[in-house]
Automatic annotation (TrEMBL):
Keyword Iron: no
Chemical reaction(s) catalysed: GTP + H2O = GDP + phosphate + H(+)
Upper lineage: Bacteria, Pseudomonadati, Pseudomonadota, Alphaproteobacteria, Hyphomicrobiales
Domain of life: Bacteria
InterPro entries: CobW-likC_sf (IPR036627), CobW-like_C (IPR011629), CobW/HypB/UreG_nucleotide-bd (IPR003495), P-loop_NTPase (IPR027417), Zinc-reg_GTPase_activator (IPR051316)
Gene Ontology molecular function: hydrolase activity; nucleotide binding
UniProt key word Chaperone: yes
TM spans (from-to): none
Protein name: GTP-binding protein
Domain (CobW C-terminal): residue spans on this chain: 244-340
Entry similarity comment: Belongs to the SIMIBI class G3E GTPase family. ZNG1 subfamily.
Amino acid sequence: MQLPIRVTVLTGFLGAGKTTMLNALLRDPALSRTAVIVNEFGEAGLDHLLVEGASEGIIELSNGCVCCTVRGELVDRMADLADRMQTGRMPAVERVVIETTGLADPAPVLAALMAHPALSQIYALDGVVTLVDAHAGLKGLEGRLEAERQVAVADRLVLTKTDLSPADPDLLSWIRHLNPRARILDAASGEAGAQSLLNAGLYDPETRTSRLAEWLNGQNCDCDDPHHHHDHHDHSHHHHTGTVRALSLVHKSPVSLSAVQEFIDLLQSMFADKILRMKAMVHTLEHPDRPLVLHGVRRYMHPPVLMQNWPQAVSPHTRLVVIGEGLDPRVVEDLFAAFTGQPRIDAPDRAALTQNPLAIPGM
Ligand SMILES: Nc1nc2c(ncn2[C@@H]2O[C@H](COP(=O)(O)OP(=O)(O)OP(=O)(O)O)[C@@H](O)[C@H]2O)c(=O)[nH]1
C-alpha cells in the first residue's frame, strides 16, 4: 500500500440524510473499493441494516457518549482495517467512508486521525462532507455545539431535502457564518455526487476558520478526566450526553400498519419537539416479507418505504429507535406495548388509547 487510503467523513445532524447519501455514493463506481464505517447512536443498531448491500465490509461502532468513545474506538477500527488489508484478510481499499452519528462532533475523529503516528501514515483525510437538512431548517441546530462543529469543519456542505422546501435564508447565513469557505451543494439538483464530494483536498487545519482551530485544540474529551468529571461550568462538551438519549425497542411478532401508524401519531402528539429522530424497521402483517422503513426527523415523518427484502443478517422483527431529549423511556415502551404487546391487538384498548392518551395504563 504505497498510496494512503483516503478518508471521507460524512456527517450532519440527526436525520439529515447521511445514510441516504452514503447509499447513493456507494452505487458510484468511484467508490467501488471503499470500506464503510458506520458509527451510530442507539442500541438497536439500525443504520448498518439500512446501508444496502454493504453488510460485509461494515464495521459498526458501539453507541454511547460519542465524544468519549469514538476516538479510542475509531482508532482501533481503523488500525484493524489496515491490519486486515496488510495481511490479506480483506481486499485492499482505496477509500474509507466514515458515517458519524448525527450527534457526533467530528473534531475528535479528525484529531485522532491526524495525530495518530501509525494511522496517519496509512490514511489521509480526504474531506469532510456535512449534510444540512434544508427542510428541518435552523430550528434545533442553532446553539447546538455538535451541529455547529459539523458545519464548521466541512469541506463540502450539502443541503438535503431541498425538494421538500428550499433552504431558508436564516439557515444559509448560519451556515456561512460558521463556514465561509466550503462549497455548498444542493442534493436535490443532483450536484452532490461522488465527483463533487470526493477528493476534496487534504485536510489542512491552518486554513480553517479560527473557531475550528479552537475546537480542534479544545475538544479533548474531558469525560474520563476526573478533574473535569463534575465540572458543571462547562456544559458544552456534555451537550449531547445530558438529556439526549436513544431508546430502542424490538418486537418479534408482526404488527398491523394501522397499529404502527397510530402508535407513531400518538408518540408524536405526546412528545412533540422532544423527539429528535425516529427510525424503525417494521415487520408488518400486510407485507411480512418486506421491512417497512420509517424515518422521522423531529416532527416530520418521511413517507414510509418498503424495502425489497429483509437484510440477511437479521430476523424479521420490528426494530424501533427513538432519539429524544428528556424522553421517559418507560412511557414510550408502555405506549409501544399498548399497540404491539399482543399478537392480536386488543381493539377496544387501542381505540381507547387513540381517543384518550391519558388513559394508558401505568402512565
Ligand atoms: N425528500 C427527501 N428526503 C430525503 C432526502 N435525503 C434523505 N431523505 C429522507 O430523510 C430520512 C432520513 O434520512 P437518513 O439518510 O436516514 O438520515 P441520516 O442522516 O442517516 O440519519 P441519522 O443516522 O439518524 O442521523 C429518510 O426518510 C430519507 O429517505 C432528500 O434529499 N429529500
